[in-house]
Design goal:
Length: 133
């Protein structure tokens, strides 16, 4: 059985390929190569191997269109981002999201609009919890 890796545990090319698949929704090996847009684009066989490994690990699936395989994500970016963030909070902040939030609040990039959005999110979460009681 293949162990389930978090997104941030994938290699850099694997992460880049997943980003392309998530962005496009579905893509062939050639589509992925073009979208990577690197000055030194990986070989077709390299991208194919990455997609095959991602498929074996449960990240993508494929369907045939003639002689071409079209790959699509089996895992959503949102779900995987949430799992990666939870793992990060567990590792770095001993599982305490309040400590992470305190660090975020110290960030100078938080403008008034962002703070207002955060307040709305907190208020909505409170209303949600109260409605479920």
């Amino acid at each position: 059985m293949v162990t389930r890796k978090l997104f941030d545990e994938l290699g850099s090319l694997q992460r880049a390929v997943m980003e392309v698949v998530w962005e496009k929704g579905h893509a062939s090996v050639s589509d992925v190569r073009r979208a990577l847009g690197r000055s030194k684009r990986p070989a077709y066989t390299t991208v194919l191997t990455v997609l095959q490994k991602l498929e074996k690990a449960g990240w993508v699936k494929h369907r045939s269109e003639g002689r071409t395989y079209i790959y699509s994500a089996k895992r959503s970016r949102e779900d995987e981002g949430a799992k990666s963030l939870k793992g990060y909070v567990d590792r770095v902040f001993k599982g305490d999201p309040l400590v992470l939030f305190e660090h975020l609040m110290d960030d100078d990039r938080l403008d008034d609009e962002t703070l207002a959005t955060l307040r709305k999110m907190i208020d909505n979460k409170r209303r949600e919890r109260e409605a479920n009681v």
